[in-house]
Amino acid sequence: MAYGAVWRSVVGALRPGPSPLATAAALRAVGGAGVIALAGAILGDLRVVGVAYLGAACSVAFVTGGTYGNRLRALAAQGTGAIVGIGVGATLPHSAVALVAAATVVGVVSGLVGALGANAPGMGMMLSIGLAFGQFGASTLPWWQQDLWYSAGTAVIAVATLSPWLFRRGVLERQAVADVYFAAAALCTATGGPAARAARMNLAAASARARAAGGDARAEMVAFAAASVYARGVPVPPQTVAAVTTAGSRVLAGQPMPMTIDGPRSADPEVRALCDALTAAARGPESPRRPAGAALRAAVTRQAVANGARIGLCMGSATAITVGLHEPAHAFWLPLTVAVIVRPEYASVFVRTINRVCGTVLGAAVAAAVLWAYPTGFAVAIAAAAALGFAVLTAPKLYALSIIGVTASALLSGSIGHVDLVLPVLRLWDTVIGAAVAIVVGYLLWPGARRLPQAARLDAGIAAARRYLGEAVQPSGDRSRWQPSRDEAYQLAHRARAACEAALLEPPPVGAAAGAMLAAATELEDVVDAITAVAAATEAGIDAAPRADAVGERIAALEGAVAATGPRSA
């Protein structure tokens, strides 16, 4: 493996993004931490402050994006995982065999839980972290009080960061939907020019955010129509583009839809579909909700089981090393590090590992420096609050920066109520060992970890595109699985392209394989848009057979290109 390529991957993984700092949210988080410290002073028991700070430190990672409703659900999911883990860890026997067995089993469950839905990975991760705290956190509180005060810390962060929801109800949701209209208008303007591809990616991102915010049927129809315009490269009349922009402004202002469009009706079926999406003629069905049975089936797929086994093995190894190196009451850091690094369901394990390792080590170093000067007390509480604010402040910029604050705050919280008899340098050493376990067991030695991620392989996406094409050529009344087929084709195509782009930062051979596959993934996205244009022609009563044949040839060529690129499955 070329060291230069690895170094470039590391540098790329640690490159900050363009998003602004979350100053207001950071100030609210620090205020919440101050409330926790004040509560400890009033109660005269710093032990509860330590556990509450842990809850606050873990919670801030889940309130930095999305709508307020999504943030609340994320907080509830992580809190549920944590309190279950704490309860299990604090009540089970603390023999070496029991500790390792519990960590392994809970790690497997954590991986399976992570496949249940959008907030499930956070719940699974916090299940492992909670278990480690219950086993090694050294709190003298009974398990139910630990759960209670962890929940209190989570509640404080929820109040501090979600309080604007009371005065901005629906604002973020309307913004997400309006962004779809604005991105669609920009795509219509850019179609046929050099900026068209970037505009198409912006529309895909806006549509994903709108769906996460609850979705909007009309905005979806506008997005699909704009995608068909992009696929065919047809010009859109200026008055139609202006109408799309106006529609976005209406949504943002909470004004009623639909609207009317002046001018003659276009002969292009794609432009007609766009106009219909803005008027009463377009009332597409909402995207189907994921049934509970599908979520449960996702938790027992081959990939979910492999993720569970991977996390369980890493957590069991970390706990075994913890028991062998230290008294169990003084080693929370080591399994904590492994729990936050090894989450295979997140994109690009290597990039996540680099960010986690760098952020965790630096955060542990900050905590160690504070503990050298102030082993316990309110000085530690103040430092923990500042670290918490830093985590929220930098979360939009770079994952590693946020992890510095999260790690420092979580680790300092463990010393608020009692003096940690283990030297800070040994705590830092625990973190380094935990990172090594995660890298060696969870990455270097794990089968398939250094191959192209499953999401970046195009087999499933190509098959979904074929099914979507089969539906698109049917008259509207004869389409039996139109909505699911369209959703599946778009989701798999976008996911494959995103996975390839993320894997570009991986060291060889994954980065090279991702580079070879990226062109095919981009073509798959364009093919799916072309199928949407076929559907628009079918609905307009135009003979879509020539278009469908051309798309079928592109799919066949794509299959050949993917087959020539390399192995298609793990």
TrEMBL record:
<dbReference type="Pfam" id="PF13515">
    <property type="entry name" value="FUSC_2"/>
</dbReference>
<keyword id="KW-0812">Transmembrane</keyword>
<feature type="domain" description="Integral membrane bound transporter">
    <location>
        <begin position="323"/>
        <end position="441"/>
    </location>
</feature>
<keyword id="KW-0472">Membrane</keyword>
<comment type="similarity">
    <text>Belongs to the YccS/YhfK family.</text>
</comment>
<keyword id="KW-1003">Cell membrane</keyword>
<dbReference type="GO" id="GO:0005886">
    <property type="term" value="C:plasma membrane"/>
</dbReference>
<protein>
    <recommendedName>
        <fullName>Integral membrane bound transporter domain-containing protein</fullName>
    </recommendedName>
</protein>
<feature type="transmembrane region" description="Helical">
    <location>
        <begin position="398"/>
        <end position="416"/>
    </location>
</feature>
<feature type="transmembrane region" description="Helical">
    <location>
        <begin position="21"/>
        <end position="42"/>
    </location>
</feature>
<feature type="transmembrane region" description="Helical">
    <location>
        <begin position="149"/>
        <end position="167"/>
    </location>
</feature>
<feature type="transmembrane region" description="Helical">
    <location>
        <begin position="48"/>
        <end position="68"/>
    </location>
</feature>
<keyword id="KW-1133">Transmembrane helix</keyword>
<feature type="transmembrane region" description="Helical">
    <location>
        <begin position="428"/>
        <end position="446"/>
    </location>
</feature>
<dbReference type="InterPro" id="IPR049453">
    <property type="entry name" value="Memb_transporter_dom"/>
</dbReference>
